[in-house]
TrEMBL record:
Keyword Translocase: no
Motif 'KMSKS' region: where in chain: 199-203
Primary localization class, coarse: cytoplasm
Assembly behavior: Homodimer.
Organism (species): Streptomyces coffeae
Name the record gives this protein: Tryptophan--tRNA ligase
């Protein structure tokens, strides 16, 4: 990996067994593309997962499953660094420093926290959920990342990361690269199939609203066919007036590489049924080999664990160097003089 390449960093939570279509189109597709142009680090963020209760056995299984799905999506351990967040203790260590640099009011303004804590009842939300955007700041800054491929919902957290990098650099001297979000406009927000005004989400979507990549393809095909649309018949991209159809067009366009105006022309005079049926077939064709590849990685946990151990080693080399620099700037006494 050439050192003159810009760095990329992103993370995905092992909070559900399967990734969903929003994760893939909004984030993971970009992870795969950036391997070619960036020195890229991708992490399964298990520390973030425990901000809400997790069953330990399930968490362990989901972490392997997340890694298997990332590899099945096209991440290549020879071209990027793939690791489990808890294998690199520097994340929690720099996270603490960043906690001490963040204002309470500033953290309180994070809308992801507001949404997620409202869902659980504010009393039951953990302090970890409150501070998780700050741990995310550490995740990114440890790798001196230039670009952070994420979905639109993460924009505010990347803003916070930029603010904290600037604040640290201003107070202690140039230390961290100030990262930029890498959000693809067209796919930055894939919507729930049953409520096309909210994002498709592991934690917020109803089963019918979310396309899980590891579900039986038949099940996903049915969900596409029963997606909520509108009372018109015209197939036209109009996010405001026709959010359901626009969402289906976005998914169709991205999975096939066909521009949306071309799809509008192709479906002129045809009903919503035709679009949904053909999209469901395209989806089945795409998820079938994806599921097979995921199963292959899972069937060989020894190899999977080796990939992750090697990834953690590569990640630690970078993270340890950044942490040492940050600790020194803050004024911590060196452990080894
Ligand atoms: P949760 O609801 O538990 O937060 P999630 O569905 O948001 O889960 P994450 O693991 O938090 O999934 O997010 C992984 C990546 O996928 C992030 O970069 C996030 O921005 C992106 N992402 C999540 N949902 C969507 C979506 N509907 N459209 C586009 N990108 C998305
Ligand atoms: Mg999320």
């Amino acid at each position: 990996m050439a050192l003159d390449r810009p760095r990329a960093l992103s993370g995905i939570q092992p909070t559900a067994g399967s990734f969903h279509l929003g994760n893939y189109l909004g984030a993971i597709r970009q992870y795969v593309a950036l391997q070619e142009t960036h020195d890229a680090f991708y992490t399964v963020v298990d520390l973030h997962a425990i901000t809400v209760p997790q069953d330990p056995a399930e968490l362990r299984a989901n972490s392997r499953l997340a890694a298997a799905q990332l590899l099945a999506s096209g991440l290549d351990p020879d071209r990027c660094t793939l690791f489990i967040q808890s294998h690199v203790p520097e994340h929690a260590q720099l996270g603490w420093v960043m906690n001490c640099l963040t204002g309470f009011g500033e953290a309180s303004r994070m809308t992801q926290f507001k949404d997620k804590s409202a869902k659980q009842g504010a009393d039951r939300a953990t302090v970890g959920l409150f501070t998780y955007p700050i741990l995310q700041v550490a995740d990114i800054l440890l790798y001196q990342a230039n670009h952070v491929p994420v979905g639109e919902d993460q924009r505010q957290h990347i803003e916070l990361t930029r603010d904290l990098a600037d604040r640290f650099n201003g107070r202690f001297g140039e230390t961290f690269t100030v990262p930029a979000p890498y959000i693809v406009k067209e796919t930055g927000k894939i919507y729930d199939l049953q409520d096309p005004t909210i994002k498709m989400s592991k934690s917020a979507s109803t089963p019918k609203g979310i396309v899980n990549l590891l579900d039986e393809p038949k099940v996903s095909a049915k969900k596409i066919k029963s997606a909520v649309t509108d009372l018109e018949t015209e197939i036209r991209f109009d996010e405001e007036k026709k959010p359901g159809i626009s969402n289906l067009l976005t998914i169709y366009s991205t999975l096939t590489g066909t521009a949306i105006p071309e799809l509008e022309r192709r479906y002129e005079g045809k009903g919503y049924g035709a679009l949904k049926t053909e999209l469901s077939e395209i989806l089945v064709e795409w998820v079938t080999p994806f599921r097979e590849r995921t199963q292959e990685y899972l069937a060989d946990p020894g190899t999977l664990d080796k990939i992750l151990a090697k990834g953690a080693e590569k990640a630690r080399a970078v993270a340890a160097e950044t942490l040492a620099l940050a600790y020194d700037k803050v004024g911590f006494l060196p452990a080894k003089p």
